[in-house]
Amino acid sequence: xxxxxxxxxxxGIPMKPEDRIVQPxxxxxxxxxxxxxxxxxxxxxWSGYTSAGMNLGETQDDTYSLANCLARQWQxxxxxxxxxxxxxxxxxxxxxxxxxxxxxxxxxxxxxxxxGPLGTADISLFPLxxxxxxxxxxxxxxxxxxxxxxxxxxxxxxxxxxxxxxxRPVLRSIYDRLFRGFRAAAGQNFPIVIxxxxxxxxxxxxxxxxxxxxxxxxxxxxxxxLAAGDxxxxxxxxxxxxxxxxxxxxxxxxxxxxHYTPEVNNQVAAGILQKYIKK
Length: 279
Hints:
The protein is an alpha/beta fold and 279 residues long. It has helices at 6-9, 33-36, 66-79, 125-142, 157-162, 170-186, 216-227, 262-278, and strands at 2-4, 28-31, 46-48, 87-88, 91-93, 113-114, 122-123, 151-154, 192-195, 232-235. It has a single domain (2-278), classed as SGNH hydrolase (Rossmann fold), CATH 3.40.50.
């Protein structure tokens, strides 16, 4: 599961034509938008994974998202003879969305679903995710599949930038509500990996947009508090080979200083894959 906002979408990093997954993969499956992006769906329709149409949030296809990068690497590993189970990807993300009341990940937001691209999509993401996870658990059970879930959460920038100081204490409780809801819907106390921010500018003052604010460390401290809880960890992109302390934006972000490069997402995907290969 890949949930969150623009760095979960892969915003700003369109795939080269030769890297797009056009032919549905044989051992990686996803949820196409057309038959699955609805509160009225009562049975999920899994299909061979492609790099277009598999995000149940906004419409932005063929990006070097973590989901697309992992799907390609997983299938390549299987094709090369590595023994791996089938991979099922649930991707739900819309850019520029936080978890507080003004944003689409707010857990108490009434159900609403207006599909479309960034700036048009208006979806109550928490109830949609819960609905999809409940159906996923049901579909796996019907198929005799015992799933091993993991959630990668890529969000938080909007909460760091736009949450008034007096409301910051509520962030921890909102995240608790989200993560408890996801786990209850799936029926598993699955591991959650929160992707933290690169929160320090380099020596030349280059930094992602959010790191120029005094409050940048607050949301990371919330993530660290969450990671002290049950089966939750924090991933830091500065552990990747792409990280370069002296490079512009630490070598992690494209020219906008906000969104990860294709190399970063491919390296994160490679790390996830290697963990499963070792298991």
